[in-house]
Amino acid sequence: MKPVNIGILGLGTVGGGTVNVLQRNADEITRRAGRGIQVTMASVRSMDKPRICDTSSITLTTDPFEIVNQPDIDVVVELIGGDTLALELVLQAIANGKHVVTANKALIAVHGNEIFSAAQKMGVTVAFEAAVAGGIPIIKAVREGLAGNRVQWLAGIINGTSNFILTEMRDKGRSFDDVLAEAQQLGYAEADPTFDVEGIDAAHKLTILASIAFGIPLQFDKAYTEGMRSLTTQDVSDAADLGFRIKHLGIARRTEKGVELRVHPTLIPEKRLLANVDGVMNAILVNGDAVGPTLYYGAGAGADPTASAVVADLVDVVRALTTDPENRVPHLAFQADALDDTAILPIEEVSSAWFLRIKALDQPNVLAGVTKILGDNGISIEAIVQKVPHHHGASVPIVILTHEVVEKAMNLALQAIGNMPEIEDDITRIRVEYLDPDQ
Q: Which end of the chain is less enclosed by CB atoms within 10 A, N or C?
């Protein structure tokens, strides 16, 4: 049978890795797909740049539109990133009747609804396994493997840079800025690390996961994101003293009031498997009503791990080339006309437990005043530690662990505590999640 011709947009780390995997495992891939898969064209920024793959059998071009408009190309693989030029190219490829595979989480999270609608009208597939958690097949697991479940919640470490930083801060007592600089030197973080450390990258991925888990449209603009620049080694140490570890988590939960969609630093019990995912590794915990909690762990980035997901999507697309479009697996797991309009909850309406660190003057009744304000706002305390001041006259650190409370109540309480004349500096506040299967 005639091989399927692939055109790759972008021949950088992931593009080169994809070529390598397709060439290295060609026989195995053909056996799985039923047809050969060959890269015949690729777009590059520079014709002279060294490549990590063999391009002797590939026609290179600096014009990506030449590929999406090439009649002989059956599937377009978009690996250029961003959501401007990439969107234009993907929509043009779809209009030309070509299937698309992409590793672009921003493109799917922001423009996925438009892209999938166009693909459905043209009867083509848009596959995006590599857009979330690199080589971990989490999209397929949730969309197909857990199709018999009502997914209740999921929580994930879905950005390797932030996890590397927190691991180093915990294990070596290093500062955030110090570890971030090393992450940039090692290539884990970009020169501008905003997307990683402010949670934007994770929010893109979480938006996609929540959509396929709950059957809702993609709604990146409603995802709550909170960065990790303010985290200190003291936060990490105090969390450990209470039996927790801090992770920068993406959390999506189905509730009676709506869907939670949030990315922020989070204390989780150190005994949880997710708490022990270190370095640049990714992991996603998914809780279904039938299966219970399942954990998916692996490399979230890199040439070969991400290429693994790209090639898996290519195999799926090739297998389905002759399938009636109406009988293919839906892009967002649920049939397009069955997506739910469940509201995304504003963060003020989300309930969670809290870790608080308050600096107070060493005076009588200050602690009593703090606990009274918490009680007046319906906030109960699970644990409280008043630490010894570093020297006479210094402020007293008070660490408090609360039970679950709606966020707007916590905001009111902390505003009142912050107005107490005995309270110094800003109050440290970090959400706590126990990741209990019964939640």
A: N
The CATH H-level superfamily of 350-432 is ACT domain (3.30.70.260)
Would you tell me how many other CB atoms lie within 10 Å of the CB of residue 232? Answer: 13
Computed from CA positions of residues 408, 410, 413, 415, in that sequence, does the dihedral angle turn out positive or negative?
Answer: negative
**From CA 419, how far away is CA 340, in angstroms rounded?**
43
Helix 200-214 vs helix 105-122: crossing angle, to nearest 10:
40
CB 45 within 8 A of CB 62: yes
Q: Where are the beta strands (DSSP E) in 72-207?
A: 75-78, 99-102, 126-127, 151-157
So what's the architecture of 138-299 in CATH?
Answer: 2-Layer Sandwich (3.30)
Average pLDDT over residues 136-142: 96
User: pLDDT tens digits, residue range 173-201?
Assistant: 999 999 999 999 988 888 899 999 999 99
Domain parsing of the chain, residue ranges: 4-135+303-335, 138-299, 350-432
Alpha helices in 215-279 (DSSP H): 233-241
Per-residue exposure over 118-129, b if at least 16 CB sit within 10 Å of its own CB, e if not: bbbebebbbbbb
Whether 366 and 420 have beta carbons less than 8 Å apart is answered as yes
- Whether the full predicted model's pTM is greater than 0.90, yes or no, is yes
What average pLDDT does the segment 360-376 reach? 92
Answer for the pair 318, 35: CB distance below 8 angstroms, yes or no. Answer: yes
> Do 138-299 and 350-432 come out as alike in CATH topology?
no
Residues 57-78 have pLDDT tens digits of 999 999 999 999 999 999 999 9
Q: Which ranges in 242-302 belong to alpha helices (H)? A: none
* Mean pLDDT in residue range 11-15: 94
**Catalytic positions, written as ranges:** 205
> Nearest-CA neighbor of 158 among 203, 220, 192?
203
